[in-house]
Amino acid sequence: MISRVAVIAAAVGVILLSLLVWAALHYHGKSVAQAGTIATLNQQKNEAEFITKSQALSVGIFNQIAGATLDVQKANVSASQNRQVIIKTVLKADTCAVQPVPAAAAGSLLEHYNSIRKGSSNADTGKPTGTVRTVPAT
Question: What is the pTM of this model?
């Protein structure tokens, strides 16, 4: 006959083995669930980094465009001011400059200017194009 000590030892061994198998399966399931969560979080982090980099690149491009636009505007203003100085200098010495411009000629030039302004490809289409008011002839 098997002694009672051997039966108790075998029962304790089976209980311990069952407990270890249960613990292994329990924590294995938790680790698999955590691995899935970690993979999902890593994917979301990578997507967020990609979006952030894309936005930073877009902002950089927009800043370059804005800088180039400002440079062109400054160059246009400078060129316009230079032309204005030349025209004023020439008109001061011209005897015809003190003569009034005929109303028909001024109106014709004004209509021509407004037609060019309306057809300009770089005009700001978000705002209405303002026309220049006519100056009454003296």
Answer: 0.43
Residues 4-18 have pLDDT tens digits of 888 899 999 999 999
Q: Give the pLDDT score at 48.
A: 95
pLDDT tens string 37-76: 999 999 999 999 999 999 999 999 999 999 999 999 898 8
Cα(2)–Cα(5) distance, rounded to whole angstroms? 8
| Residue whose C-alpha is closest to residue 55's, from 45, 66, 47, 67 | 47
Q: 């407004």: which residue's tokens?
A: 114
Q: What share of the chain is helix, strand, coil (3-state, %, to 5)?
A: 80, 0, 20
Q: Quote the radius of gyration of the chain (alpha carbons, Å).
A: 43
Q: Which two tokens stand for residue 92?
A: 């001061």
- 112 Rama sector, left if φ>0, alpha if ψ -120 to 50, beta otherwise: alpha
Contacts of 138 (CB under 8 A, 6+ apart): 100
| Those residues with Cβ within 8 angstroms of residue 110's Cβ, 6 or more apart along the chain or in another chain | 132, 134
